[in-house]
Amino acid sequence: MIPAPFDYLAADSTSHAIGLLAEHGDEAKVLAGGHSLLPMMKLRLAQPSVLIDIGRVFELGGITATADELIIGATTRHADLASSELVRTDAPLLAHAASLVGDPQIRHRGTIGGSLAHADPAADLPMALVALGGSVQLTGPSGSRQVAADDFFVGFFETALGEGELLTAVRVPRRPGVPWGYQKFVRRANDWAIVGAAAIAGRIALANMGPVPLRARAAEEALAGGASPAEAARLAADGTSPGEDIHADRAYREHLARVLTERALRHLS
Ligand SMILES: Cc1cc2nc3c(=O)[nH]c(=O)nc-3n(C[C@H](O)[C@H](O)[C@H](O)COP(=O)(O)OP(=O)(O)OC[C@H]3O[C@@H](n4cnc5c(N)ncnc54)[C@H](O)[C@@H]3O)c2cc1C
Q: Which residues fall within 8 angstroms of residue 187, CB to CB, at 6 or more apart?
């Protein structure tokens, strides 16, 4: 499969990338790891005439910490998240989620910014960010804004990224030692989740149970009210709207959401 012809432009700074986005508008797409965009281009589901490569923008990579948050540059690769001592200590749920993305090739090219901007509801990092109560920094011609994970995913493969905006960084609360649980149900190792569940500090997020990564709010409320993991997990599928495909119908996904939520809550590690 061969994509439609396109021009390739390499940005050398964040402001350069934003300038190129403003110049080329709808015709352009940001290229990060290319592991979601290029397959879409090969299938002709996306046909940008310009690709703006942010892979060489030094300031968009790397992981730093403030007193209470980790700040992760958009082009930080899944493999770097998974192996970072800082992330493994202060946000181990995120490091674990990154370690389960695809295979080593995918993890060495794919980026956290690309995964979040792509917004596949079955993906690992969007669910992890929602569970952690993190946020994203979006930067455009008129400055930067911070958007909570709960508000960033607005529809099926659709986010709050505005025209001309770049996802520049991801923030997650530092929670060393706080118990967490992460469950991903797959047919084969390295697949996307048929359903996923992630839990930490009273928050529960689900993957592939609707058009966006969802909070299992009824289960969260039950937990807050003193319910046991088993009692709370029985409510995990309430308010969800899972799709159907060759892997699972709706009833099976709802069942998985309950089972995986219970496991995530029981296996808080
Ligand atoms: C075989 C295979 C298996 C996979 N398995 C999994 C899995 O198990 N779990 C999982 O979660 N994912 C999986 N993935 C997806 C993988 O994680 C991708 O790396 C990720 O979804 C996209 O990241 P990327 O850096 O490659 O983004 P790209 O493909 O470069 O970009 C994806 C989209 O985001 C936009 N974009 C990228 N960066 C930015 C930015 N900074 N600001 C604004 N827009 C941006 C692009 O324009 C494009 O629309 C798999 C992919 C493949 C090919």
A: 194, 247
Rounded-to-integer distance, Cα 81 and Cα 40, Å:
25
Of 87, 65, 103, nearest to 191 (Cα)?
Answer: 103
**pLDDT by position in tens, the chain (length 269):** 889 999 999 999 999 999 999 999 899 999 999 999 999 999 999 999 999 999 999 999 999 999 999 999 999 999 999 999 999 999 999 999 999 999 999 999 999 999 999 999 999 999 999 999 999 999 999 999 999 999 999 999 999 999 999 999 999 999 999 999 999 999 998 899 999 999 999 999 999 999 999 999 999 999 999 999 999 999 999 999 999 999 999 999 999 999 999 999 998 75
| Collapsed DSSP state (helix, strand, coil) of residue 167 | strand
Q: How far is CA 149 from the centre of its chain?
A: 9
Q: In testing the pocket of ligand 1, which one of 6, 56, 101 has its CB within 8 Å of the most ligand atoms? A: 101
Question: What are 198's two structure tokens?
Answer: 């992630």
Residue 260 tokens read as: 């995986």
- Give the residue, by CA position, lying nearest to ligand 1 atom 39: 114
pTM for the model stands at: 0.97
